[in-house]
Design brief:
two-stranded antiparallel ribbon, 19 helices, 75% helix, mainly alpha
């Protein structure tokens, strides 16, 4: 891996520079336009994110490099960049329907882009100090987003999010300190973690990923904040955190058994908690916890099989588009309880179709993208010598079908009670349909790519 410096290193960071420039430009634009015309900030942010995604895709063809001896620009970072940028673009698009006319509309979009930038930096961090700084950048704007509405539920969500994030962030910093004291270095290639340091170091990335035992914030924040923000915080930070965990697992950490136990525990706890949920946001919250468990499987297999990296990166992209699609339906309908979806298939057939595709996609039903991701995940666990983990993941996948079907069943029932008005429907319904289409198309595309690669 080459290590350019100066201007060449800055060039490597073009996607990150575009994201930062977009956030600053949107904030400045918001200062000079009327409060009721702040939609321009959304377009600035989305243009910057689209440009960053294009630059990231172009950079995938270049050889791997190390910027400033602390930031890896390689395929995992490239895929994380593209996924984060496109997922954040969809989240901003989704938020425009709810934030329109808000006196702080510009700040909402700016905070989303800054948190996304922190997630990208977590994915590319190749030094513990960069990881800690990226964690803070990914977290602090997210705390503000959780309480953005300034209502009672949002304030409670922001407080819980902040307290747990601060506590686990301190533990991660303590772990980084132990690693430095143990090995005399913070750079991943030469740093090594003792057992206690490894456990502490995992606290921060697990918090951002929503993995057990750092998952307790997920249901309360998902239910308490606005639905577009919930879609963002359960999707985008997870991407950077899991790629960061993968890097740590291949270099600093040597704890595959610990990571495998965390993966099994996370997916099982998430599924068990989702079974009895009647609130759709809490159901999706525990669904994201279980998905974090599946995604931790290839992380645990890092360095043990060549399938680990493809499984993780593809599954992350598949999860992002599918989870955003499910949340987009929640925004479109404005319905919070399972029973409120009765008759949705008659009232809004395309929205109902998108919901069914996304929910079955989260299960891993062919030909959706998550199905391909789960196949790669199972193969990685088996090839890595952890067949028992593949069996646990398969059992959890079958069990998860139960609570997703509990949501799908009323959609095709007879006409139910009127659902609350959804002012964002004109925006969120197309987002849901785009995500559903992408989920269906990505699955066969993955199979075709694997055939070509062979």
């Amino acid at each position: 891996m080459t290590a350019p410096h100066g201007g060449a290193a800055v060039t490597l960071l073009l996607p990150e520079v575009l994201m930062l420039a977009g956030a600053v430009a949107a904030l400045v634009a918001g200062l000079f336009v009327a409060r009721h015309r702040q939609r321009v900030a959304a377009w600035v942010c989305m243009a910057a994110l689209a440009g960053a995604a294009a630059a990231s895709a172009a950079a995938l063809r270049r050889p791997a490099a190390l910027a400033f001896d602390a930031y890896a620009v390689d395929p995992p970072t490239g895929v994380a960049r593209v996924t984060v940028c496109l997922a954040t673009l969809l989240a901003v698009w989704l938020a425009t329907g709810r934030a329109r006319g808000d006196s702080r509309e510009t700040e909402l979009y700016t905070l989303m882009v800054l948190a996304a930038l922190g997630s990208v930096l977590m994915a590319g961090a190749d030094d513990l100090l960069v990881l800690v700084a990226a964690y803070l950048l990914a977290s602090i704007p997210a705390y503000a987003l959780a309480g953005f509405a300034k209502d009672a539920s949002g304030t409670e969500a922001a407080l819980k999010y902040y307290l747990m994030g601060a506590f686990l962030g301190v533990l991660m910093l303590a772990g980084a300190t132990l690693v430095y004291g143990w090995s005399g270095a913070t750079a991943y290639p030469v740093a090594r973690a003792p057992a206690v340091g490894a456990v502490l170091l995992l606290a921060g990335p697990l918090f951002k990923a929503g993995g057990a035992p750092a998952h307790f914030w997920v249901p309360d924040v998902t239910e308490g904040t606005s639905a577009p923000v919930a879609a963002f915080v359960t999707t985008v930070p997870k991407i950077g955190a899991l790629v960061a965990l993968y890097r740590l697992a291949t270099t600093v950490l040597d704890e595959p058994a610990l990571l495998a136990v965390l993966a099994a525990g996370t997916m099982t706890l998430g599924n068990l908690a989702a079974f009895q949920q009647e609130n759709v946001r809490r159901l999706l919250a525990y669904s994201t916890v279980s998905q974090a468990g599946y995604l931790l499987v290839p992380v645990a297999m890092a360095g043990r099989t060549g399938l680990a990296a493809p499984a993780l990166l593809f599954y992350l992209a598949a999860y992002a588009v599918t989870n955003l699609g499910a949340f987009a339906v929640v925004v479109a309908t404005g319905a919070e309880r399972l029973r409120d979806y009765a008759g949705l298939g008659r009232r809004s057939p395309w929205t109902a179709f998108a919901l069914v595709v996304c929910l079955l996609g989260l299960v891993g039903t062919p030909p959706t993208a998550v199905f391909a991701g789960k196949l790669l995940m199972f193969a990685a666990a088996w090839d890595g010598g952890y067949a028992w983990l593949a069996v646990v993941a398969a059992a959890n996948t079958v069990a998860s079908l139960f609570y997703y079907l509990r949501w799908i069943r009323p959609v095709f029932a007879q006409e139910g009670p009127a659902t609350p008005a959804a002012p964002a429907r004109a925006v969120s319904s197309p987002v849901a349909q785009v995500c559903a289409a992408a989920s269906v198309l990505l699955g066969p595309a993955a199979a075709l790519a694997l055939l070509i690669a062979r």
